[in-house]
Amino acid sequence: MRVLVVEDDPQTADYVRESLSESGCEVDLALDGAVGLERARRDPFDVLVVDRMLPKLDGLTLVSTLRAEDIRVPVLLLTAMGAIADRVAGLEGGGDDYLVKPFSLAELNARVVALSRRPALQTREPTTLQVGDLLLDRLGRTARIGDREIDLLPLQFKLLEVLMLNDGRVVTRTMLLERVWGFRFDPRTNIVETHISHLRGKIDTVGQPSLIVTVRGAGYLIRAC
User: For the whole model, what pTM was predicted?
Assistant: First the structure.
């Protein structure tokens, strides 16, 4: 397994590299965010371990840039900021898991291995999705209804993609938290409801029923009007 560690503290970086190497990983280091982004774009890695506070380019910007470029390598974020709001921000930014400093090297190793085992995206999935007049281009990262192009933020695109992949089927709140935000826990916020509301505001047509239906006590589904 090949891992890129992006960490500006040389001592921490060495500890992490040594621990992962002893577990059988091939580990590369980057000491700032700009170099980390360049390496992640250029070379194939199985997992990235990224500190949030980095010189030249912070960890959240690094990860969100990769996601915007459709680079889906799993990312474990490291940070000294352990508040729930900080964890939410990290996961919303595209991180897959979150580890607060100081941390156990054994736990870090276990989380890296767990991320590496996540199933890869299925290459046979359709590149375009359609529900009624709503068309989603998964390669071009664009969405439109008829001739009207819809401007979606990365998280809104991912949320719509998950709903459209399950056209006509209920997607639970827990499923959305896992597949869109990567949560392994319920953050006890209205993050899903807020994003669904914003998404409706972009894809719905005035005077027409909403494409996204709330199924009380179950979740959400998308269907043609």
Answer: 0.53
